[in-house]
Write a structure and sequence with these properties.
The protein folds into four domains: 144 residues, Rossmann fold (3-Layer(aba) Sandwich), CATH 3.40.50; 93 residues, D-Maltodextrin-Binding Protein, domain 2 (3-Layer(aba) Sandwich); 98 residues; 58 residues, no CATH class. It is built from twelve helices and 13 strands. The strands form three sheets. It has a five-stranded mixed β-sheet. Strands 7-8-9-6-10 form a five-stranded mixed β-sheet. Strand 2, helix 3 and strand 3 form a beta-alpha-beta unit. The longest helix has 30 residues.
């Protein structure tokens, strides 16, 4: 890839890796039976910055190649440091740490480029430093061997390592090489492995959370450093630091939030700091689909749950046991049924009096008669006609069934006294009349859940939620109750 002349040449070279063979010039390496495409792209990068957004994306797709490529290398002919830095930033090279980078340029340009932050995550980088004559051009014909007349006698090959300089970036001279000779000791070129950070100091973002991620502020100013306090995250951090040989300093976001997305698409809190690349990583940040678009997450090691805490169920009053065998709706239906039955019996008696001229009955008499049947204390009187006995007979049978069910249920309730129903869901909580609910300080994710949930029960819970705020880091813990 040329960073100089205003010419662009793209080519593709696809070679199937046959069984037990990978083409590397005249050498072979065993890889099994898989067929893997090999490809290359030569491009003039200067024109990238004159393209629109969509064209830039297509350009970079062509540079990085197919996702099936098991290994990627970026070879740059350097003529302009600023142009190279712009390319590294636009191509997001920092998100591809395993990409091998080889840069060919002059000695005077080396130090400024290799220590630039755009290469902060690049693990494998070689710099071929030589005095190159201005009339030297990069050929786009692969099989044309470049003339050595444009080169100085020797080329110094430098390796850039991320942490070998007492935990910081350093540049080491590997060997001096002449283009007319075979490059020696190829195995030592890309050898760096991230097994030790060699004492590198990481900047870590964290928000105090009881029992999980606890810290003590070093001052009361926003965005201060914090001292770790024994907790789950702190123990994990200390174990990682000891294993990977790194140090750290913990900072608090200026707004003391984990991260909420605001209307213009930007973020607050820890997510904003990580997105702006002002810190290396964070502790205790809940994974959400929107946050995944802004930052990269590790494996989940802790899940957030909502638990409802309430008083233990109490024994129900004993004096209410007499009505407890039947639910309220059944008592209502029973009362209305007895009333309607008494009215029907009274209407039958009135109709019979009008048609036959015999004695009738009063409404109060039929009501008392119906109530007496239900209470098993009724007058043993039945009409003489069979048709007149049908309605009282149905009532007697119905009351027999109801009384039997009531007695058996009443005995059960008296033997085993009932308790209040447990509250296990939001629906159970909303069903309680006169109840209030609240919570201690909750994270940003739960706030978004309550505010944006389409469930009407969750919306009502959020609307009436009271917050019990425990002020951390104060000399005395104060509980403040306020409406959310």
């Amino acid at each position: 890839m040329s960073l100089g002349e205003n010419t662009t040449s793209l080519f593709e070279h696809n070679t199937p890796l046959r069984e037990n063979a990978t083409s590397l010039g005249e050498h072979t390496i065993s890889l099994g039976e898989n067929t893997i495409p090999l490809g290359g792209v030569v491009a003039e990068v200067r024109s990238l910055f004159f393209l629109d957004q969509s064209s830039q994306e297509r350009f970079l797709e062509g540079v990085w190649g197919d996702v099936r490529f098991p290994c990627r290398a970026l070879i740059l002919h350097l003529t302009n440091n600023q142009l190279a830095i712009r390319f590294f930033e636009v191509s997001s090279l920092w998100q591809r740490p395993e990409t091998r980078v080889v840069i060919v340029g002059g000695k005077s340009d080396m130090e400024a480029l290799l220590y630039h932050s755009s290469l902060r995550n690049t693990v494998h980088l070689l710099y071929l430093a030589a005095d190159i004559h201005k009339n030297l051009t990069v050929t786009t014909r692969l099989r044309t061997r470049p003339s050595s007349r444009g080169w100085s006698d020797h080329i110094n090959i430098y390796r850039r390592c991320l942490y070998c300089g007492n935990g910081e970036v350093d540049v080491q001279l590997l060997q001096r090489w002449h283009p007319s000779r075979v490059l020696q000791d190829l195995k030592s070129i890309f050898t760096e492995k991230l097994e030790s950070f060699m004492g590198h100091r990481f900047k870590i973002m964290a928000v105090h959370a009881n029992y999980i991620s606890r810290f003590q502020r070093d001052s009361q100013s926003p965005g201060t450093t914090m001292t770790p306090v024994d907790s789950l995250d702190v123990r994990m951090l200390k174990a990682f630091a000891a294993h990977a040989n790194f140090t750290y300093q913990v900072w608090e976001p200026r707004d003391r939030q984990w991260g909420l997305q605001i209307e213009n698409g930007s973020w607050t809190g820890t997510v904003s700091v990580l997105q702006d690349q002002q810190a290396d990583f964070s502790l205790l940040l809940t994974l959400t689909s929107s946050r995944m678009q802004a930052v990269q997450f590790s494996a989940i090691y802790l899940r957030t749950t909502i638990v409802i805490l309430s008083l233990k169920p109490k024994l129900l009053p004993q004096h209410m046991a007499i009505i407890r065998p039947f639910p309220g709706i059944l008592w209502l239906v029973l009362t209305v049924t007895i009333l309607l039955w008494a009215i029907a019996l009274w209407l039958i008696q009135i109709t019979r009096t009008w048609m036959l001229g015999s004695g009738g009955a009063q409404l109060s008499s039929t009501l008392l008669y119906s109530w007496g049947v239900l209470m098993e204390n009724w007058t043993p009187y039945l009409p003489a006609k069979l048709t007149g006995r049908l309605l009282p007979g149905l009532l007697l049978v119905s009351c027999l069934i109801l009384n039997t069910a009531y007695r058996s249920s009443l005995v059960a309730h008296l033997i085993v006294q009932d308790k209040d129903a447990e509250i296990n869901t939001f629906h159970d909580l909303l069903a309680r009349d006169g109840w209030q609910w609240g919570t201690e300080r909750i994270g940003d994710v739960l706030i978004v859940y309550f505010q944006n949930s389409p469930n009407p029960e969750v919306k009502r819970i959020s609307k009436e939620l009271q917050m019990i705020l425990k002020i951390p880091y104060a000399s005395q813990t104060e509980d403040i109750l306020y409406k959310a």
